[in-house]
Each structure stands twice: as C-alpha cells, then as structure tokens.
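Hello everyone,

My group is preparing for a crystallization screen and wants a predicted model to guide construct design. The compound we'll soak is cobalt (II) ion. Before spending weeks at the bench, it would help to have a computed complex in hand. I've included the protein sequence and the ligand's SMILES below. Output in structure-token form would be ideal because that's what our pipeline reads.
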Amino acid sequence: MSSYFDAIAPIRYQGPATDEALAFRHYDKDRIVLGKRMEEHLRFAVCYWHSFCWTGLDPFGSGTFERPWFEGGSPMELAKQKADAAFSFFSKLGAPYYCFHDRDVAPEGATPKESHENLLRMVDVLGEHQQRTGMKLLWGTANLFSHRRFMSGAASNPDPAIFALGALQVRDAMDATMRLGGENYVLWGGREGYETLLNTDLSREMDQLGRFLSMVVDYKHKKGFKGTILLEPKPREPSKHQYDFDSATVYGFLTRYGLEKEVKVNIEANHATLSGHSFEHEIATAAALGILGSIDMNRGDPQLGWDTDQFPHNVPEIALALYHILQAGGLGSGGLNFDAKVRRQSIDPQDLFHGHIGGMDVCAKGLLIAEQMIQDGRLQQALDQRYAGWDAPEGREILDGQLSLDQLADRTLTRNADVAPRSGRQEYLENLVNRFCVG
Amino acid sequence: MSSYFDAIAPIRYQGPATDEALAFRHYDKDRIVLGKRMEEHLRFAVCYWHSFCWTGLDPFGSGTFERPWFEGGSPMELAKQKADAAFSFFSKLGAPYYCFHDRDVAPEGATPKESHENLLRMVDVLGEHQQRTGMKLLWGTANLFSHRRFMSGAASNPDPAIFALGALQVRDAMDATMRLGGENYVLWGGREGYETLLNTDLSREMDQLGRFLSMVVDYKHKKGFKGTILLEPKPREPSKHQYDFDSATVYGFLTRYGLEKEVKVNIEANHATLSGHSFEHEIATAAALGILGSIDMNRGDPQLGWDTDQFPHNVPEIALALYHILQAGGLGSGGLNFDAKVRRQSIDPQDLFHGHIGGMDVCAKGLLIAEQMIQDGRLQQALDQRYAGWDAPEGREILDGQLSLDQLADRTLTRNADVAPRSGRQEYLENLVNRFCVG
Amino acid sequence: MSSYFDAIAPIRYQGPATDEALAFRHYDKDRIVLGKRMEEHLRFAVCYWHSFCWTGLDPFGSGTFERPWFEGGSPMELAKQKADAAFSFFSKLGAPYYCFHDRDVAPEGATPKESHENLLRMVDVLGEHQQRTGMKLLWGTANLFSHRRFMSGAASNPDPAIFALGALQVRDAMDATMRLGGENYVLWGGREGYETLLNTDLSREMDQLGRFLSMVVDYKHKKGFKGTILLEPKPREPSKHQYDFDSATVYGFLTRYGLEKEVKVNIEANHATLSGHSFEHEIATAAALGILGSIDMNRGDPQLGWDTDQFPHNVPEIALALYHILQAGGLGSGGLNFDAKVRRQSIDPQDLFHGHIGGMDVCAKGLLIAEQMIQDGRLQQALDQRYAGWDAPEGREILDGQLSLDQLADRTLTRNADVAPRSGRQEYLENLVNRFCVG
Amino acid sequence: MSSYFDAIAPIRYQGPATDEALAFRHYDKDRIVLGKRMEEHLRFAVCYWHSFCWTGLDPFGSGTFERPWFEGGSPMELAKQKADAAFSFFSKLGAPYYCFHDRDVAPEGATPKESHENLLRMVDVLGEHQQRTGMKLLWGTANLFSHRRFMSGAASNPDPAIFALGALQVRDAMDATMRLGGENYVLWGGREGYETLLNTDLSREMDQLGRFLSMVVDYKHKKGFKGTILLEPKPREPSKHQYDFDSATVYGFLTRYGLEKEVKVNIEANHATLSGHSFEHEIATAAALGILGSIDMNRGDPQLGWDTDQFPHNVPEIALALYHILQAGGLGSGGLNFDAKVRRQSIDPQDLFHGHIGGMDVCAKGLLIAEQMIQDGRLQQALDQRYAGWDAPEGREILDGQLSLDQLADRTLTRNADVAPRSGRQEYLENLVNRFCVG
Ligand SMILES: [Co+2]
Ligand SMILES: [Co+2]
Ligand SMILES: [Co+2]
Ligand SMILES: [Co+2]
Ligand SMILES: [Co+2]
Ligand SMILES: [Co+2]
Ligand SMILES: [Co+2]
Ligand SMILES: [Co+2]
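Reply:
Good plan to model first. Here are the tokens for the complex, ready for your pipeline.
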C-alpha cells in the first residue's frame, strides 16, 4: 500500500472551535439538515485527475509535484500504485464518492485493444478498492481530448474513423462505470468545438454530436443503466469555441436531437463564470429547463480567462448556489464533485488534504446557511408576492393563452391607465441573505 | 423642410481613387455581384434612434449634440421636424431602408391612448415621407425598455398589467410596420432579463416570454403579415442578464415554445462580441440552426464591456461575415441595419454622413472580397475535403443511425488500429483569406 | 425641511439577533477594535451624487426615481431642497461623513460666473447643515466630465480654454472643500483619456495632466490645506481608455511629474475589478508604493464590463480588503466613501437606507474579522517565515547591493547545488482565512 | 543536416498576383520604404521556442507535433539536431534574425554547472550556424519559469537561493547573447508575480525585482554590451498577477528603481490585449514614455483569456501598429520577433512556413500602408490642428508653469465665457485610415 499519506490521520469533524487544520470544522456528515443527513445532501466526490494524475504542469512550466507513482515502474504498475494512493486519500478524507476518466485510472496502450484491456484490468483493481473501503463511484467518463488523435475533436472530428475510436472509449467507459456501480455517466467535450470557422462545418459537427449522444443514450437503455447521462458545459478552453457552451446552449442542442428528457447537465462553477454567467445562474437556468443533473464544485478566478479549478472558498456564494439546488429539489443521482486542484505551488501531500477539507467545510457551512434561508421563508415569500399578479385571473388568462395580442391590446387601450412600477427591493433582499451568511 | 443637412450634397459613388470624403469609394449600388445588384445584397438600413434621437448622453454626461429638433416646440412638432431631418438624411445618403422604434418616431403621450394616437399620426407622416422619397422600412419595433414602467421588463415583468401595456405597444408597432410596408418586425428585450436572481423567478419569466412571443406570431398570421419576426440576441446591458443571450440560447428558447420555424434572429455584431463570440460565429451558428434572419451591422470595442455601437471599420472582418451570410444563402427579407452611432464627440452634421459612408463602403468592399472567395472556391473545397469521410459509406452509416454504440465500438476494437490526425491547415487558410482581403 | 424620509426613524445598532431591517446588526460605532472606535476606523461617507442626484437613468432608459427635489422649482431652490433631503438622510443613517462634486450640490449656471456664485451660495447652505447636524466632509471634488464642454477631457483637452474652465472649477471646489473643513480633495478624470488614438496625442495630454496636477498641489500648499490630494484610478468608462488606469499606472504618472510624495490614490473597488485586478490587489499595491489614500467602497459585478457601483455585499472579500488596509497602517485622512447606488428598480425611499445599512454592516463585520486575523497573527507569521531567507545574511547582501550579477552567478556556479522549492500553502492559508470569516 | 524541411524550397518574393502559397506576396525585402529597405524596417526574427521546442501540448492534451528532434538521442544530440532544423528553417524562410531562451537551445543539466556547460557548448554550435547562414540574433533571454524550482518566481522568489540560481542563468544568457552578437537582451517574468496575496509580500518582491534588474543593467555596462535591456510586459499567465503588467506599470517600476533611462519594453501584441489595451495603445504609451524598445509580433484572440500567440493576420490593425512605430522613430536596435506558434492542429512541416510567411506578408503590407499614411500627412495634420491652441501663447504659458491655479481660475472667471467644444471627427479619421488600408 502507498505510504504517501502515512503522516496524515483520518480527517474527523471537530467543530468550529477546533484549532486543528486537518479536521472538519463544519462538515458533520450525520448532522440532519432539512430532514436528511448532510452527507446525503452533499454527496461529495473526489476527482481522480487533478489530485492523482496532474503533475503540476502548466503551459509555461513542467510538473512541480513529485508523486511516487509518477515514475519508476511500468505504466500498469504505476496505475496500481496510483490507485493505492488515491483510495488511501479517499478513505482518510471521508468523502463518499469519487469520479474518473478512463485514462486517469488505466494507461493508454499501444493499440486500441491494449487500452481496452488495461481499462478492464484496472476496473478490477478499482472494484477491489471500492469493496475494501466502501467508496462509491459518482460518475465515470472517457477522456477524448488529451491524445493527439483527438486534436480536432472526437464525435465532431472531420474523420469518422476518429469518431469510431471515441465510440469505443465511451462504450468501454460506460461499461466500466456500470461495473463499478457508478451513479451517472458524464461527457465533457473539450475538443468538441473549433479553433477557426475556416476549417469547420458547424452543421455537420452538430449532427455528428447529436448522433453520438443518441448512441450513448440508446446504449444506456439497452444495458439498463439507471444512472443519468450528463453533459458538462464549458464555453471554451481548450477549444476556441466549445459546442456545449452553457446550460441554455446545451438545452437547445438537446431539443434539436430530441434528447432533452434523456440528458442533464453537470454544471461546473468555473465553467459557469467562463461563460459570462454566475454559478447560481447556471444552476437556476438548468433547473428551470429541467436539466439540472450534478455539480462540479470548484471556483474560478474572476480576473482570469482560463479554468483555474480552485477549491470553493467563498461561503456566501456557495450558500446561494446550494439554496438554488435545494429549491430545485436537489440533485437526484448527482452530487458535488470537487473538480478542483491544489495550486501548482502546493507540493506537499497535506496540501491535497487542505484543499479538500476547506472545500467540504465551505459546502457544509453553505448548506447550513441555505437551510436557514429555506426555513426562514422570507426570500421565497418575497418572490411569491412579487409575481402574485400572475396567479390572479388576468395573469392566468394571459398565460393560459386565452387572449390574443389584439384582444389584450384593445383591452389595455380601453382601460387607458398607466401602471406604476414597484420597487425590486434588491438591497433589502441582499441584506436578508447576509443575515444568514454573516452570523 | 429641415435645413440641418443643407450643406451636404447627395452622396455619390466616385470610386476608390476619389479624394472626396463625402462620397462612396466602394458602394456602387448597381454593380452586379454574384448575379445581383450590390444594393439588393446589402439592403442597407439607417436606424432612427442613434442618429436622430440620441442626444450624446452617456452614463457620465449629458447630451453633446445640438440638433434643432431636440427642443423648441411641442413633442409632436419636434417629432415632425425630426422626421423631416431623418428623411433628408436618408435621401442624401442613398441607403434604401430605415428602421425605427415606436417611441423614436412618435412621443410617449400622457396616457396609453395618447401614445397610441401619436403613433398613428406619425405613421401618416412617415408614410408621406416614404412616398416622396422612395425610402422603405426594413423593420419596425417597439421600445419596451426606456420608460420607467418597464424597469423590471415588459413581457417578463412580475406584473401582468405591465405585460399588457407592452402588448399594446407591440400590437401598435406591428400595425405601424405593416402600414408602412415593413419587411420584418423585431423584438429586442433589453429589460427582459434580471438584475438579481433574488427577486427573479426564471421559470415564470420564461413562460411569460414564450406566451408573449406566441401572441406576436399568432397576430402576424392573423393579419397576414408576410415579413419575418426577429428576436435580437444580446447577453446583457441594460440587464445584468438578458434572456436572449445569443443565437444558440434563442434557438433553445424557440424550441421550448415551438416557435423555431416562426422566428429568426437579428444578429448584432456588437452583441455577438459581448456574448463571448465572434460576429461570424453568431452568423454561422444561426445559419446552421436555420434561424438567420437579419443583421444589425456595427462593431464593438474588444476592450470594452458595453455596447459601443460603432460603425464597422475592419474590412477583413466584415468580408468574412458577409462570406458566411452569402454561403448561408443570404438574408431573405432581412438586411444590414446600421445600429451604429457616431461618437459622442462627433457633433457636426457631416459626422453623421462620415459614419454611414464609411460603414457602407466597408460593407461594399467586404462584399466584393466575399464574392472573390466564393468564386475562387478554395475555402469551400478545403472544407469539403476535410469532411469527405462523412460522405463515404462508414460515415453515412454512422450518421444515418445504422450503427449502435456497441456495434461501432466492437468493430473498432476488431479493427484495432489507431488513426493518424491530419493537419487543420489553419495558417494556410488564413493566408488564403488574406489573398482576397489584402489585394 | 424635506419630509421624504419622514417615515424612517434614525438607524440604531441593535445587534446580530435583531429582526429589524432598518437597524445595524454589526455597525456598533463605539465598539473598540484594535484600540480605536469602529467609527474612527471606518470613517464612512455617503456620497451626494448617487443617492440625491442620479435619476435612475441608464443608457437604455430614463429616470425611475421620483424624488421631490428633481422638479418643481428653480435650480437653486431644488438644490436647497436636495440638501435638506441629503442631510436628513445623513443624520438618520449616522455615517459621520459625506462627499460631493461641485455640480451635485450647486447647479451649473448660464455663465462661469453664475456657476461660481451658485457654488458659493450652496457652500453656505451646506455649512449650516454641517453645523446643525455634526456631519463632516470627507472630500470634495469637481465634476469635469458631465458637461458637453468637457466631452474631450478637461486637463487633457486639446483646447487650453477648456483646461482653463476646468481650472476654475477645481480652484472653486478646493476652496469649497476647505471652507467646509473637508479632509481630502479628489480628482477623478472620467474624460481624461481617449476614444481613439487617431485624434489623440498621448505625450501632449500626459504633460497637460501633469501640469494641471502640479497646479493643484501648489495651490494646496499656498492655501495651507492639510488634507490629502487624491487621484481616483479607473481604467475606462466613460472614456475608452482613461489615463489613471490603476494604482500602478498612477504611480508611474506621479513619478514622471515628481508628485509621488504629494498625491495619493482613492481606490474604488469596482474600478479595481474593471482594471483586471482584485480590490485587495489595488489596496496592497498602493500601500506598497506608498500612495494608499482613501477608498470608494462599493462592488462591481464580475460578469459585467461597466461600473455598477453596487453596495458591498460579500463579507469575506471586504474582510480581506480591510485586513490589507489595517496592515498598511490605515487610511490616515481617508475613509470609506460609499460610491454606491441602489439599483434602478429600488425606487422607494427606504431602499436608500437598505443599501447603506447593508454596506455599513458588511464593513463593520469585515473589520471585526480583520481584527481577529491580526490578533491571531498566523497569516503574518506565515509570510514572515516564507521570506525569512531575505532577512538572513545572503539575502541582505543581495538586497543591499553588495553583490554584482557576476559575483552572485560565480558563487552560485561554485556552490553548484539546486534548491528545492517549498510549498506555497495557498489552500492552508485560505482555510485559515475562512476560520475567521465563517464563524 | 536535418531533412525535416527538405520538401520546401527557399521562400521568395513573387508579388501579389502569385498563386503559390509558399511565396511572399508583399515582403520584398529590398524594396525601399521611406528611405530604408523593408528588411531594415521590419527586422523580422523567428523565435526558437514555439516552432522548435513546443510539442503541441496544452493544458488539456499532450503533444501533437512529431518533430524528429524530440526523441531518439541524448539531450545534447537532440539539441544539435534541433539547431540544424531551426537554421534550415531560418535560411529557407529568409527572416534575418532569430531569438532564443537559454533552455530552448541547450538542455537543463543535472546540476547548475552542467546546465552552464551545455549552454556554452550550444553557443558554439549556434555561432557556427550563424556564421554559415548569415542569420543574426535579435535577442537572447533566460527561461526562469519552466523549471519547478522557479514555481514561486526567480527574482521575486521568497528564497534568495533561487534568486541566485536565476542570476546565474541570466548572467550566462547575457554572455551567450553577447558572444553571438545579439542586439538586445530580454527579461520576461512569467512567474514574477503571485497566485495569492495571502502568501505574498508585494513590497519585498518589488525590491527584489528592482535589485535584480539593477544588477543586470550594471553587468551590461561592465561588459560594454551595446544592446538594449528589455522587459516584456504581460499582465498574467502563468501567474494570476504578473508585476510587469503593461507598459505604464513597467514605467512606474523603472522610475521607482531609477532605471527608466536604462531599460525599455518589448511589447507583445497578445500581451497588450490581455492587459485590456489595444496593441497600438501599448506602442503609443511606451513611445510617449520613452521606453519603446522592440515588438513581439503576434495576435491574440479577443474572445479568449489566455495567450494564444497566433500569427498576425489583420492587415489594418498591423498597419496602424506600424504607423505608430514609424511615428515614434522606429525601434532602434529592436525588431519584430514572431512570438507566434502554429495551431496545435497544424502538424505538418509546411504549416510552420505558412504561419511565418503569412505573418511577414501581413507586416510588409502593413508597412506599405503606414508609409502611405505618413506620406499623405493628413492624419498628422488633423492632430496638429486639434492641439494648435497648446502651441499658442496661452497654451504655452500654462504648460510652461507660468500660471498658478488661482491665477488661471481668476482670469477665466473674469473672461466669464463658455467655450464650445469641437468635433473629434473620429469617423472621418477612421474613413481616412481605410482609404489607405482598403486599397
Ligand atoms: Co468539470
Ligand atoms: Co474546470
Ligand atoms: Co441592435
Ligand atoms: Co448594440
Ligand atoms: Co468612485
Ligand atoms: Co464606480
Ligand atoms: Co512574447
Ligand atoms: Co504571448
């Protein structure tokens, strides 16, 4: 077994007053919140890629982390060492779920067949670790963006032979997810987009993507997979433009191919802000459109134009995000996956713990605040009162389609009265939110 | 008649060699381009609001323009003076179309009825001007964003009585458009969005907007209007978030309410870039989704986060935009409306001419370049070759839905061969574009 | 006396448990924090322009507020009514300071002389209100951006006659500030920038600005004014580019004209973020450069590219900003001016109170958190330890200039040893901050 | 000798009419422009890093290029193969200069001494290639950002021992530059910045940077190096914040440490736009401040928040940039270095040529346009007329410091006259620019 995290004892809840950095101050997994255990609300997952695969490399520099499983063995030996370390970390941290890409857990082989077999073997290894530790798989996914063959996309590739290689990986990753009891399956199309319209046919690529996703949905049903298929929106990076730009764009794409009842979105906070939206906006929009599925919990930097994938830090922001999730009825089979990485300068093993502990505590505290906002009820009441007219007869008459434009226009002309606007009370409502956030 | 533009003679085509600033150097309206007259391709419109209503006011300062029709008479008298000046300008410039909001041409009255009647009277005035000058109306629209009653939106207002006032204005503006032979009708929802989710119910507001637009479409059919109903996407400003964020978002909204065959988009260059897209992206996306309707031709400033509505200036950019429009089969009943204003410091009457002449010449030159790119054919050939595999049997088999995910995966696994990627040739294609743009 | 705020009782501290919206929950002005009264730390000011002059107008709509002092009298009568209302508001709120532009308090006259005299008269009125209420003036300033004569700048105007009109206004505004006991004088150059380099000579305009500021500094000394002269950086808006882009740019400008010991900066949170920096960055940079003077306390919207001037809302962010201010030794004669406005939809009189109460409570709570961070000391210790090497002999030898590049290079080559990097511990430090922020 | 580019014949000028893609259409090096050969104006350099070192790796994927010198030999053997390939490329392309980082040309060794010796050996190799081909070195630089030891900066590192390792590299890279006849020496501080203020002491880091740069300048003088020391501004990436944010910030930094006469800036187009400025702005600002040194010629993508380092493409934009450079008197010892890379999908050897040929042609055409704008003179005349008042007596009196604020104010009050603003004529000037750009 890996000894990389030997110095660190399992992380426990010690309450807000503790002076221990390697303890939870707010995440008390069995605490009941709105009738459910905190752990069941938050359904935290640790991602495999950032903490166990990323070397610290960025576009201007090589790796900074020196993990023991990065070199010194065959690819499969190193993959097993990595799995040991990952499950050692998971167990000590105490998050119930993890997530992975196929290529995170099993090395790319020399041929498609070898890659296929590497994954099969590693699924056995992961299954044993799950068995031993009780860890569960929130979702699996396939990496169709790192290998050079996918430089021009997978499903949207101009070459159908590369689409086919993507299909093989996704089929295998879905099989792996099902074998490991995964509760969802995610597709993120980092190269499903374009660098320049000069070499891109948007109509063709949309149709290819529609076909690919339909095949995925059909396969799910054929295999009887009960989990949710999720698309993860992101506006750009690595592509100049990525087709799954944001939740509203994904909704349009799904309706175009008749998939809006079949597929939901995995919303990442950092991707939301890259697309020019707030995190709550993406959550509330997906909820309103009926496609809210799961969350990649992290944060971006408002001054930076790329995906920094930092751990969440700002409790008031997370409280509002969780408030919207709770108001939408929760995430169902989804959860909060920390698609977050420690900074490239955070090179010590305990830094991985600090990142996750901080993130879990921020979410736990945010959940407690969201609970208060819901129990208090004034935020919802203000909303109900503001729109009350739409539940009154004339409002209903309009919404139910009983009035044509000219009927309503004529009635309005006859009435011949202006209508005074009412205050939107934004500052009052913001102060109300702070009553719960600030303590 | 207004004498504001007396010093300026009608603008004529004088060719690239002219030294005259108040002449066209490229816009030669009868020149045949790809089988049609330049004027028929470009279908230029001058907008009423920026050149004849805007005072030069910005958030930090009051008006800078001193147009004679801004003060010194009753609102209706000033409206007539403004119309005189506007048609004097239109005629001298020589663009075939204009566009207006109801409140641009007729003053808001003390009551809804008075506003209604003001508009009726001014429609007569405009009709006479059209008759006299031969000017045509590209589209009309209603201003549902300037008056304080619409501070929380019109169709998406929490108060149905304000929705009703909006319905009256739109019905009247549609009637006015029809009476004046308008070829399209536009809706831009500058306040159809939100300032904060704390006082906003997204589901309700979407449904209200869907209902409103359905009423508009029904009214169009009832009246037998043959023009196109157009939504103008814009991501934000004045709202923090505006529902018609971009073309892809509008497409999703239209499909949600079954309107995707009824309504198209009026794409504004500056709004495209505010939404994080290039102008060509918005055009190509709308074309691929089948909703490309018309263009608000202008430019933004890539360093600024608000709508500067400048005249287009960069010929290579406009050439590519027009290339995409021509490749999509043109704009049908749409056209190129200059939703553009001279800078606040450009206070002389001739500055209005310089702005429009420059814009028209930029588009004319761009059209000539786009013609060359199409006649040359190499850009399209490169695209056809790149995707050729999708027209070959395996590509078709996939796209036609004849292969399930596991069939394709198994076939790929059996083939067990990697596929080499091919160069995207972006730099070659960019150089090819410059052969046409740079002369 | 104005009765606009009659329905509102003076705002009192009632503690975090109160259910009263029109009360302070954290701002307890006499509470001792780090040895000083809260009021003395925060030195809150209310600004005249946003709450008493702004009509709710934005670039797409007219005013929404219907303040009684907006119409129904001569300009001077309305100015007096506005002053009554403003001081009624100030007194009820309980912030100790206010700030104004010359044109906020006294109307522009028909001639320079009339404007000059209007200001003189209104200074008497303001003086009486100050006497009566105990309110103090944090700073005065001159509005050199709203009138059309300043459309191309004031000090940077291409016409020296407009520079001269600006000089008159600034001299008069400085005199007014001095007569009213103002503690600072601010210059914000909203039009001191450019729209296009095509009509701009950067060298000339910089020299004009340098001259103007030197004249201001000389006048301060001549009059024996003890307050601080402050420049307020902003990167753009209304100008495309504004010369006082950010603190670092202002520092360079000051050194160019030998003014870096004479002038400091008034940092606005929203301007910081518009310039691509965090608020703390601007504070810490100004502090490091020795030019931190005062704060315009507000917030922007990270998704919007213009100045929204909202009230601060996020306590953790404000706590860190105040931590940096306290670490820098505080603001001296500066203070926290709420350059913030209620949203255009917040049209009721009490909305003005909600905005300011919320802002004051956010700052008060932030101050208490900053106090804890300082008393705890671990944040500073971590910093001291990280740089300890620079206080050791080799570090000092380098910094003191005792080693040339080749001496140090040769020594390093002889030593011939690599150096292992140490963790930056960012996540640990962020968690530590949250211990204080989250409670 | 490398055979990687064997299929490509030397690139020749063939004129605008040519149909050959691998030829220059505008870059006619001996053509006389404003009295100098085109080659002498443009002083093109090819950079070593992007075309010969970068593997196509990005944050989401591994290398896509398969250059023969990437593997299959010892590091020094590969470095020599790379140099063979690079000089084969340089010679065929026909740009007169190249640029490099120490680590581009010579591999990092196991110890500082081994790295030092690797560089010495490779300088001999490069020297022979220069001798053989006639290529010249525009500038050298040291890579102080890729190795993990520099993860927290080099000169701004909290550990002076890492500063010392940086000093060794810079001394050696300066020596290498001098031995190879380099005409400038560049410092780009990609890690000289911060990720979070929580672990950063801005004052200390600024002083460290000031000391480092002073040591560099002293060494230059000691060695009698006649070239220019250049800092390359960039606002962020890889750091969250980088100290050399933009030209104005660098100017302030230089004045702080008394170096503004010693050091100039190397302005990169893409970095300009990342900092919220246009390319011309950075050029014109640096020129006005007297620190314009050299150019990294490339382009960014206005929709993307990271450094895309694309080849320049837009002729009108480059024409204006070159106009400002020519108006500033040219670049002296500087030049136009293509800090530009082909897209990751452009994997063929000829793609490297297409990128550079396109870039050189864009600059050549831009230069011809700039020549016309200068010879025509109307742009400069418009500027001179606009500011004419400042050359008249009252303007001079003000600028020369002969009037105090109150003298000027009193004089203005006595005159008691408003001043009418004059049109900024932006649209006229933009049209005038297009007369030269559009042909
Ligand atoms: Co994610
Ligand atoms: Co991400
Ligand atoms: Co528009
Ligand atoms: Co616009
Ligand atoms: Co301010
Ligand atoms: Co502001
Ligand atoms: Co560069
Ligand atoms: Co760059």
